[in-house]
Structures are given as C-alpha cells and as structure tokens.
Design brief:
Number of helices: 25
Number of strands: 29
Radius of gyration: 31 Å
Low-confidence stretches: 242-256
Shape: flat
Structural class: alpha/beta
Distance between the termini: 40 Å
Mean pLDDT: 93
Strand order of the largest sheet: 9-8-11-10-12-13-14
Bound molecules: coenzyme A
C-alpha cells in the first residue's frame, strides 16, 4: 500500500495548521471534528498566537511539535500555504490535506504547481487543495469541515465536489447507505482519483469504491487503475454535455460526445456507471453489501402483480430479461401460493402471501442452483406485517448458508415498510422503496461480472505493422508544410497498419491514368488529389464506374477542368486511379485525440445512420478483439450487420479485425494523428472481407 497516501487517509498523528480558537472558522471546526468523533490518533493544533484550543496544547509552529506527524491538515489562507509546506517538509510530515481554496480553480496554477513540487521535494503527497477534507469511520477520523462521520458502512467515496461530500455525508443516514471513507479530492493537484482507486482497492475497510467525477487529468491512468482493481467501482460522471459541445471540432469530433467516450472508458476500466445521484446511492448500497451476480437467471418473488410487472419491465431495461423458471422449480414454488397464484417468473404468491410463504419461497428460490439472483418484492397489505415479512426473508437467506449469490428487496408501503427495510439493510440485504430500483441494483451486480470478464479477456494483440513507411509518408507531408494527408497518402498509412484499402495510385497525366487503369482493371474510380480540395465530390472531382480507356481520358480532362473552376489556385497533385470496389454495407471508422483519453475511435454504420441518427460507438484505443466485436453489437443498426430480411450476414469477423488494426494505428501514431477517418468502409458477406474505400488523416499541429 502506498505509504504516503496511507499517512494522509489513515494518519496516526495529525497536525492542524491554522487551528483556531474562533468558532465558525474552518480551523476551529476541523479541530473540533477530530476531537468530537474521538479520533484514535494524536492531534497537534498549530497556531502562532493561541496557547490552548478545546483544552489542547497549541504549538506555535510545526517544528515545535515533539513527536512524528503523519499528516498536516492545512486551514490557512492560500498565500501562506507554500511556506507551511516547507515547514511541514522540514519536520518530516508524510502527507498534506490542503483544505485551502485559491489555487488552480481560481486560475493560480503557478501557486498550485509550486506547492506540489515543494511537497514532492520532501517526499510528501498532497490531497487537494480546495477540499472539504477526508473522513474515515474505521479511524474515527473527521479531518474535514463536514459535520460528522457518515453512517458506518463498507463503501468508500471519492468526490471532486466538496459540497457533494457534505451532502452525501448527511444523506448517508436518511438513505441508509453506509460509508467507511469519504474523500474530497478538489483540484487533485497531486493525489489523483486513480491513486485513490488503487489505494482503496487495498483498504481492508472498503468493499466498494464509489466515485463522483467531473473530469480526469489522465484518463488512461484511471483505466489502468480500474482494470487492476479487485473491488467493484461505480462512477457518476457529471458535466459531459458542455464538454461534448466543446469537443465538436470536426465531423468525427462532433460525434465524439464526451459522454460516450467516458462511458466507453468506464467500460474498458471495468467501472460500473451510475445514471444520477440517486442511482449512485442505490447501486453503491448493493455493490457494497452483495456479491456479484454470476449468471443471467433472475427470479422475482412478489405478492403483487403490479410491482411484478414493473420489475419485469425493469429487468429487460437493465439487461436481465426474465425467463420462466424450469418446471421443477415452478412445481415447488406452486406449493406456497393459492391456486390462482403464478409460479412463472415473476413468481406471484398473491396478496395472500404471509410470513410463511415468503420464508419458504425465498429459501427455496435462493438456494436453487438455477437462480443466479433473487429480487423479493412486497406490497404492504392490511393482513401482513412488513417487519415479519422482512424477518422471514432474512431468516431464509441466513438459513440457506449461501454467501455468493445476490439478493435485493423492495417493500412498497409506508412507515412500517420503511422500518422493515431499514432492518434488512442493517443485516446486509439492500432494500429499496420501488421494484425497478431493486432490479436496477441487481443489474449493477450483473454488470460487475460482465465488466470483470471484459477487462480480463486478454490483452490487445500487437499486429505486425510497417510504422516506418507510415511515418515516412507523414514526414513528407509535414516537410511540404501540409497539415493533412491526401487520400493516397492516408491509404498508404492505413495499409502500413494492415488495413485493407482499395488499390489507389496517382496519375499525373492522361497517359499515366490510362496505364494505371489498365493495370488495376476496369471499371475504376477517378478522384482529384489536391490538399486544397477536401470535399472532392462538391468540386466535381470524382467519377465512378469508369469503364474504358476513352472514358478515362474524357474524365481526366473534365475532372481537371472542374477542379480549376472550383479553386483556381489549388495545388493539384494529379488524379487518383482507384480500384472500384463492389458495393457492400457502408460503415465508418473515425478517430480523435481526446483531451482526456488520447486516441479514441468511433465506429458506426455509414450514410444516414451516422449523419442523422448518430448511431455510433466509441472506445479508447487500442481495442481487444472482444471489445471490437462488442462495438459491432452495440450500435442500433447491429441487425443490419447480422443480416436482415433474408440478406446474408456481413463479414463481422473481418470487420472486427479492421477495428483492431485501425485502433492500433491511431494508438501507435497518436503523436502524429489528430483525427482520421475511413469513410466509407464496405463490408461484404461473411468470408468476403472488408474494403476501406476512402481514408483521411489530419495531422497534429506541432510547435
Ligand atoms: N501556521 C499556523 N497558523 C496560521 C498560520 C500558519 N502559518 N497562518 C495563519 N494562521 C492562523 C491564523 O492566525 C488563524 O488563526 P486565528 O483564528 O487564531 O487568528 C487561522 O490560522 C486561520 O487563518 P485566517 O487568516 O483566519 O483564515 P480563515 O480561517 O479566514 O480562512 C481558509 C482560511 C483556509 C479557511 C480560507 O482561506 C479558505 O481557503 N476557505 C475556503 C475553504 C474551502 O471552501 N475549501 C473547499 C471546499 S470544497
């Protein structure tokens, strides 16, 4: 475990630099919080003038403190922080919790960089600055100005919003979601979210890592930390829409809504997502209390048809469509319900279900090997006592002795149901006020298994590539002062990375065009090649299905004339003579260099699917074969690739390979390529492969 982060989050001794005797000041509140919660380490208040605060001896300076200090919590104004960091360093403090605001968040990055550099020179790490502080139930540590320690529990939360920490702290009691640690990360100038994920993964008091994220500095470090973690991680990401708009720089960029890129990155990191704050609470509760769901068979028990139907709808929505249980399971369940009940799925014991039926069905269903996860629903009726029902469910679970199968519960009713759910949660069974929430929570437990399977499915294969040729093509374009490659050059780069491009060669003269057309074989496609004409069709610079020598000659002259008319001073390299690929299903590949995650790829069906429907999916490059195959299945137009209305399935295997090769190219050339796309890429019937018909590469601006 990282010793310095240990010293910050679980200090054995803590100094409060800026401890104040004045109630209402943060330096007073932090000290009071440490004392009030019964912190089990040593506290050293530091203040230049005070002698005693809250009955404790005060030290004038950190150097006066007699013993060793693990962490210093800084609550003095920003302009004094740098000097305090020096003093702490000289004293041998291991880590700093800097609550003070007034750094990069107000534009003073220089001051922030200065304190980080100083801290590192003394081998100290910084949490913050601009934070509420850090709290730990297992250490009785409230080194913050949040009012109290949260409800005790097994989840730990890292948040970029300090206000949200305080809100979650209080809400943990009303929402009955317990936390061990709440960590405010503020500007994350030094200790990052990724560092904390890694640290919390090793923390014995944490069973689930919950994150509120506004943005990362290094998205790739986060992906690695997530992949390596052995505990469930759940993230709520905010602020995606504004960022997405800002990123809308090019065709592909405008599709690269950051929300989708973040979702892809979370998936690649094995991180479960929460859709909103409520969902973060609900999913955190389930993930912190229950084991993952290892198979797809979800069984729903209920005493009410309506909640059963709502759960059924939710099950489909959250990727766990209900199936009828096998006949023997149904037969056994049928014994615990009236004639008019249903033993299918949901299992409806009807409103007559009391303690005994709930107990028996829960025990049987939970123990049965067909059932991978159990959701028990209850509507409060006049004939039943919610607490008794809850007790029946709990006893059934305990008697089963099973520990590796998840259960979630929903009681719909009033105060009595609420009390019963509270009891269940205290005993480790997540309980929610609505059936769809209980199913959503189960969905998170299933998602966790899927995500872990994905991140461990094998490394990304590194295909044999000719990066030297690709880099030479790029260097030549740069030498000529160009920021984009021509189609021919783009295809040379693509081909160097193993991508199946259509044969394309440059003809400078009519005779060359004829010779090349004969070599490639009729019919051919002719396209203007000019760095000044990017939209070739608009300029009348494209002719398809050119069938013979005469047509080549005629079209050569027409295209040249059109190009000159379109842009008189265009630098015309010549005309590309290109193999005319037979038509297939049109798809598009694109890439951007995302500011957070670096080279990121997009895939979708071409034409209106991409233009109008924005039916695209993203991944941070490079992608594994499994991820590539998943991308094909993710788009709404997936059935078109699978083959609809009697059409043969498309060559998805070859297409997956192309996705891998393309992702490898943009990853390997990330220092050179700002954006690229392959549009269209034609996909043929199974076994007949894929052709990249057009390709475009825009280079990164270099200083
Ligand atoms: N060592 C020890 N104590 C020092 C000191 C030093 N180098 N320099 C100043 N102090 C003392 C002061 O004398 C004062 O004690 P006093 O009350 O006995 O006079 C105490 O530290 C606090 O300094 P003060 O100048 O009164 O500051 P403040 O309490 O008004 O504000 C902060 C300090 C850190 C709270 C404020 O600058 C700040 O950043 N607030 C925002 C915090 C925040 O919102 N964080 C993010 C949450 S999301």
């Amino acid at each position: 475990m990282n010793e310095q982060i240990n010293a910050v989050l679980r200090p054995k001794s803590i100094a409060v630099v800026g401890a104040s005797a004045t109630p209402g000041k943060i330096g007073y509140t932090v000290l009071e919080n440490l004392v009030k919660e019964g912190y089990n380490g040593v506290i050293y208040p530091i203040n230049p003038t005070a002698t005693e605060i809250l009955g404790m001896k005060v030290y004038k300076s950190i150097s006066d403190v007699p013993g060793p200090i693990d962490a210093a919590c800084i609550t003095i104004p920003a302009k004094f922080v740098s000097a305090a960091v020096d003093e702490c360093g000289k004293k041998g403090v291991k880590g700093l919790i800097i609550i003070t605001s007034g750094f990069s968040e107000v534009g003073d990055r220089a001051l922030e960089d200065e304190i980080v550099a100083k801290a590192h020179s003394y081998n100290m790490r910084i949490l913050g600055p601009n934070i509420v502080g850090t709290l730990s139930n297992s250490d009785k540590l409230n080194a913050s100005f949040a009012p109290f320690l949260p409800l005790e529990g097994k989840a730990s939360l890292v948040t970029q919003s300090g206000a949200l920490l305080i809100a979650i702290d209080a809400a943990s009691f009303t929402r009955r979601v317990g936390f061990d640690k709440l960590v405010s990360i503020g500007n994350a100038a030094d200790i990052s979210i990724s560092d904390l994920v890694t640290w919390l993964d090793e923390d014995a008091s944490t069973s689930c890592i919950s994150l509120y994220i506004e943005g990362f500095k290094d998205g790739r470090a986060f992906i690695e930390a997530g992949k390596a973690a052995s505990k469930p991680i759940i993230a709520l990401k905010s602020g995606v829409s504004a960022h997405g708009a800002a990123a809308a720089a090019s065709h592909t960029g405008s599709l690269a809504g950051a929300a989708k890129v973040y979702s892809a990155a979370f998936q690649q990191a094995g991180v479960i997502q929460a859709s909103d704050l409520n969902n973060l609470f609900d999913r955190t509760l389930a993930l912190s209390l229950q084991p993952p769901m290892r198979g797809d068979n979800l069984l729903v028990l209920t005493n009410g048809g309506g909640v059963g139907v709502l759960a059924t709808d939710a099950a489909e929505r959250y990727g766990l469509p209900l199936k009828f249980a096998p006949a023997d399971v149904q037969a056994e369940l049928k014994k615990h319900m009236p004639e008019f009940g249903s033993a299918k799925n949901p299992v409806d014991m009807t409103g007559m279900a009391g303690l005994e039926w709930y107990h028996e069905t829960t025990k049987f269903a939970y123990s049965h090997p067909w059932v991978d996860g159990l959701v028990v629903l209850y509507c409060e009726t006049a004939m039943t006592n919610p607490m008794e029902i809850a007790q029946g469910i709990l006893t059934a679970v305990e008697e089963s002795g099973i520990k590796d199968k998840p259960i979630t519960v929903s009681f719909v009713g009033g105060e009595r149901s609420d009390k019963a759910m509270r009891m269940l949660v205290e005993k480790g069974i997540p309980a929610y006020p609505a059936p769809d929430i209980a199913v959503n929570a189960m969905g998170a437990l299933r998602e966790y298994t899927h995500l872990r399977e994905m991140v461990t499915e094998g490394a990304v294969a590194a295909p044999k590539v000719d990066s030297k040729t690709a880099r030479e093509v790029i260097a030549k374009a740069r030498m000529e002062g160009r920021g984009a490659l021509t189609e021919i050059e783009s295809k040379q780069v693509f081909a160097a990375y193993g991508l199946p491009v259509t044969t394309t060669q440059l003809a400078r003269t009519e005779d060359e065009a004829v010779a090349l057309a004969k070599k490639i074989g009729f019919p051919i496609v002719m396209k203007i090649v000019s760095p000044d004409i990017l939209h070739k069709s608009d300029a009348g610079g494209v002719k398809v299905n050119v069938k013979d020598e005469q047509a080549v000659r005629d079209n050569f002259r027409t295209i040249m004339a059109n190009a000159r008319a379109y842009k008189a001073d265009a630098d015309i390299h010549g005309i590309a003579i290109q193999e005319m690929a037979p038509w297939g299903t049109e798809v598009i590949l694109g890439s951007v260099n995302d500011p957070t995650f670096g080279p990121t790829m997009m895939f979708g069906l071409g034409g209106i699917f991409v233009e109008v429907l924005k039916d695209v999916t993203f991944r941070v490059a490079p992608v594994s074969a499994g991820q590539a195959a998943r991308m094909l299945g993710e788009i709404r137009g997936a059935p078109i690739l699978a083959g609809v209305r009697g059409e043969a399935p498309r060559d998805r295997k070859a297409l997956s390979e192309v996705l891998c090769l393309y992702s490898n190219m943009i990853f390997d050339l990330a220092d050179e390529i700002a954006e690229s796309d392959a549009n269209p890429v034609l996909v043929y019937e199974e076994g007949k492969g894929v052709k990249v018909v057009d390709a475009r590469v825009i280079l990164k601006k270099k200083a």
